[in-house]
Amino acid sequence: MADWDIKKLRILRTLRDLGTVTATAEALHMTPSAVSQQLTGLAKSLGVTLLEAHGRRVRLTGAAHLVLRHAEAVFAQLERADADLLGYLQGEAGTVRVGAFSTAIPALVVPAVQELRRTHPSLAVAVREAEAEAAYELLAEGSVDLALSLAAHAPTPRDPKFSRVSLLADPLDVALPAGHPLAAEPGLRLADLAGEPWIFGSSGPWSQITTTACENAGFVPEQAHAAADWSAIWAMVAAGMGVALVPRMAMAGGLRAPGHGSGVALRVLHADQPRRHVVAAARRGSEGAPGLARVLAALRQAAARQATVGRSGGDGGPATFQSD
């Protein structure tokens, strides 16, 4: 029988994900020669060729991909075993580590933690701010147990390493200078703002979200100013420098709400309102851990409360991870 060495299989999976021996070595805190030695040993124990030369790099063979298809099931089963053992030892005690993007922390994570402190004081939550790419790297390496991100920047539901669940469809409202001619326009549509100067990030998720929303409304936004910080965007809108889309979660998370003297009119785009979708993900097989399931339920409750601001949403009940 072949020797299915879990450590070596994880190295092979990391090489598949990162593409080079050097990147694999850096991610696993190994030397490139150690990575090569481990994979050579794995190939010998399995009796197949796992890597082949491809220019100055290597690529996985068909046999390697076959091995990894089976290995993913093994990894998921080991995660389930860890979850069962943790449940046996700790129940709903212990610590759950959550990686989340910036606006999700005050709007979803903090309310969830506050609720858990009241209902399950023996369960601790450790929070780490991280955007999508970093959050999933942390999740894959085991540094966090749950990752929150926007769906557009999350692994697909078919990714064999992760299970994920939808938390919230976050509406995007438009911020205009208070004296803008359209600030009080009834039935305002995003398309009505096609000729306006826009404020959004020069790159990254928010740039993509803004441009995609505007393109779906039939125009390409003219970027007058680039900013990613919500307070900076808010100040520029108040100064009459342009208009911007603002996620409702940012308002719930503490962004200064419009009011008398704020200089900003925040309008709901009922006819063509864009939304961004927030998801949570865990390593496949780990979602049954009692503490993780309890944290996820609290996040669902926080998302349901947030959803009442803009839409009728989930009931905050138990979540079902997508596994395919």
From TrEMBL:
<keyword id="KW-0805">Transcription regulation</keyword>
<dbReference type="Pfam" id="PF00126">
    <property type="entry name" value="HTH_1"/>
</dbReference>
<dbReference type="InterPro" id="IPR036390">
    <property type="entry name" value="WH_DNA-bd_sf"/>
</dbReference>
<keyword id="KW-0238">DNA-binding</keyword>
<dbReference type="InterPro" id="IPR005119">
    <property type="entry name" value="LysR_subst-bd"/>
</dbReference>
<protein>
    <submittedName>
        <fullName>LysR family transcriptional regulator</fullName>
    </submittedName>
</protein>
<keyword id="KW-0804">Transcription</keyword>
<dbReference type="Pfam" id="PF03466">
    <property type="entry name" value="LysR_substrate"/>
</dbReference>
<feature type="domain" description="HTH lysR-type">
    <location>
        <begin position="4"/>
        <end position="61"/>
    </location>
</feature>
<dbReference type="InterPro" id="IPR000847">
    <property type="entry name" value="LysR_HTH_N"/>
</dbReference>
<dbReference type="InterPro" id="IPR036388">
    <property type="entry name" value="WH-like_DNA-bd_sf"/>
</dbReference>
<comment type="similarity">
    <text>Belongs to the LysR transcriptional regulatory family.</text>
</comment>
